[in-house]
Amino acid sequence: MINWTDIHNAIESADTIVITTHIMPDGDGLGSSVAMYHHLKEANKDCRIFIASELPEEYEFLNKGNIIHCYTPGTDDAWIQNADLAVIFDVGDFMRMKTIGELLSAKNIPMLNIDHHPIQKNSPFTINVVETSVAATGELVYDYLNLFQKNPITVQMWEGLYTAVLTDTGSFAYSNTSIKCHQIAIESLKAGVDISKIHQGVYQSRPLEKMKLFSKVIDNVELDCNGELAWFSIDEKMVASVGAERKHVDGFTDMVRAINGVEVAVMIFENENSCRVNFRSKGKYIVNSIALKLGGGGHQLACGAVVKGSLDNVIQKVLELTKAEIASQNGSER
Ligand SMILES: [Mn+2]
């Protein structure tokens, strides 16, 4: 059971609060942050949302009043390091806070971690509120607001909560979708959230360069394991050739998983001396066992790792492990 009173006390006793989420932020991390931001503002807290990478275009609708700050080295350091508390959403791994995490831990700022990813070993957080059974971190924020938001939850808060559950359930479609997720949707509608506008923001605001890059991805998808494994790699040249940016690869692994017959999709994305590897499964195979072997982590069906080495080496390593895992999970079924 989550001890919300202790968490509330930690928030109550803080005057200035940093709110943050992981790099390449998604709808859950941003939606949770925005909902909590508006709650804390109403409670007269001096709080700011900082993210350690750019805000993806599709979530611009959450940034009314420019409340989401993309961390600027130097300029933002003092504010972050003078905060009384940091509230961190959906991060999975402390390392995914990048410089913001380093700044906070250098000054021993208490860190409240609210998440639905399994806790990593040696996690440096002060307080952990981790519930891996929920579909989205936003559900935990919903619980918190139900307990401690004095006035009715506002439309802006609902927009954050709705976006969180919408995106982490694949539009209320994945097996993690619960009654509570739909409850949040019902209450968001009752409060007047324009859900069609949110869907347009999230799913129909893709930059053309992103779609051009995706067409290259589709051209290069390789199928293996009798069509159950689809994998693709992206290098810097591919990104540059269509004028796209690194952030645009977000969501590609989900899109490739959508291919008929594919059970597992894997992206291997070149990044200087390492590669970012993403795994997505439809449910037949559990894939975070592979991510763990590569030093990463995440959910059973959606996870990733950063693997050192050249693109070719990482591809080889990842494919070996993935094929072995699929074979072994098939074997144990028989
Ligand atoms: Mn999440």
How does the SSE layout of this entry go?
Layout: H1 4-12, E1 16-21, H2 27-42, E2 46-51, E3 68-70, H3 77-81, E4 85-89, H4 98-106, E5 111-115, E6 127-130, H5 137-148, H6 155-168, H7 179-191, H8 195-203, H9 208-219, E7 222-224, E8 229-234, H10 236-241, H11 252-257, E9 264-271, E10 274-281, H12 288-293, E11 297-298, E12 302-308, H13 311-333
Parallel strand pairs: 1-2, 1-4, 2-3, 4-5, 5-6, 8-9
Antiparallel strand pairs: 7-8, 9-10, 10-12, 11-12
This protein binds manganese (II) ion (MN).
Fraction of helical residues: 40-55%
Task: Look at the structure and give the mean pLDDT.
Answer: 96
Order of helices and strands: HEHEEHEHEEHHHHHEEHHEEHEEH
CATH superfamily of the largest domain: inorganic pyrophosphatase (n-terminal core)
The CATH architecture of the largest domain would be Alpha-Beta Complex
Structural class: alpha/beta
**Termini separation:** 37 Å
Write out the distinct hetero groups bound to the structure.
manganese (II) ion
Q: Please provide the count of β strands.
A: 12
State the domain count.
2
In the CATH scheme, what's the topology name of the largest domain?
inorganic pyrophosphatase (n-terminal core)
- Over the alpha carbons, how many angstroms does the gyration radius reach? 20 Å
